[in-house]
Specification:
The protein is α+β, with helices and mostly antiparallel strands and 227 residues long. The protein has one domain: RNA polymerase II/Efflux pump adaptor protein, barrel-sandwich hybrid domain (OB fold (Dihydrolipoamide Acetyltransferase, E2P)). It contains five helices and 13 strands. A six-stranded antiparallel sheet has the order 3-4-5-13-12-9, with no helix packed on it. Strands 6-10-11 form a three-stranded antiparallel sheet, with no helix packed on it. Strand 1 and strand 2 form a beta hairpin. The longest helix is centred in the C-terminal third of the chain and has 15 residues. The chain is globular and about 50 Å long. The N and C termini lie far apart (49 Å).
Length: 227
């Protein structure tokens, strides 16, 4: 399935001509990078849609992207203690949902057995159908809506939440056949899903999220509490 995800108009870095850049999300990451490097020219635009983490806070600085680049925001203790998420928000409101490095699923010794997008008896995220620029047919998510359930070989099961209120643009179906990429490349090919907040809510939905510095403070507090 080809999913229309992103369009951006500016002068191409290669030809100098104005062009509408259209990217289909199911293209290989390397091809997407090549297209953006030639047409958009800035690292935030080149990497945002495949989920690269940027090391700074809400202004996007630190990667040379400026204020219109992707921003890495974090959320701690979602649903259960230490179940943390990293939300990559781009300037066009698109949010890529990934697991933060401290999430239990990403810890050493964990092996993912199965990833299931069937969240209830009557609802599967794989049945999400999006069409047109208005994104008709997209499933609407609340912040705590389940995206999938991850079962590990040690018997533990983790419910992965949306974290963002908005429309579900897509889930990462590649995880079904290769769940290991979630652990190997959690912030790029191992992303969970893509969510688009409503325009009028795009700033509100991220107000409760944390900058990298704020999140590191939480990690330090956890470390001190356990010692």
């Amino acid at each position: 399935m080809l999913l229309y995800l992103y369009e951006y108009t500016r002068k191409c870095g290669k030809t100098g001509e104005g062009a509408e850049i259209v990217v289909w999300y199911n293209q290989p990451a390397a091809l997407m990078l090549q297209q953006f490097a030639l047409c958009a020219g800035r690292c935030a635009h080149c990497l945002a849609l495949i989920g690269s983490r940027f090391p700074r806070g809400r202004d996007g600085h630190g990667c040379g992207a400026g204020r219109d680049g992707a921003v890495s925001l974090l959320l701690a203790d979602v649903g259960q203690p230490r179940e943390d998420y990293c939300i990559l928000q781009h300037s066009n409101r698109i949010c890529v949902i990934t697991l933060a490095e401290s999430h239990p699923v990403l810890q050493k010794g964990k092996t993912i057995k199965n990833i299931n997008y069937q969240v209830t008896a009557h609802c599967s995220r794989l049945q999400n159908k999006v069409s047109g620029k208005s994104k008709r047919g997209a499933q609407f998510l609340t912040a705590l809506a389940p995206l999938c359930r991850i079962s590990c070989s040690d018997g533990e099961e983790y419910t992965i939440h949306s974290c963002i209120r908005g429309r579900l643009m897509e889930v990462n179906e590649n995880l079904l056949n290769n769940p290991a990429i979630l652990q190997e490349k959690p912030s790029t090919e191992g992303y969970i899903a893509v969510v688009l907040p409503k325009f009028e809510e795009s700033k509100i939905v991220t107000q409760g999220l944390l900058t990298r510095e704020e999140y590191e403070g939480i990690l330090l507090h956890r470390l001190n509490s356990s010692s």
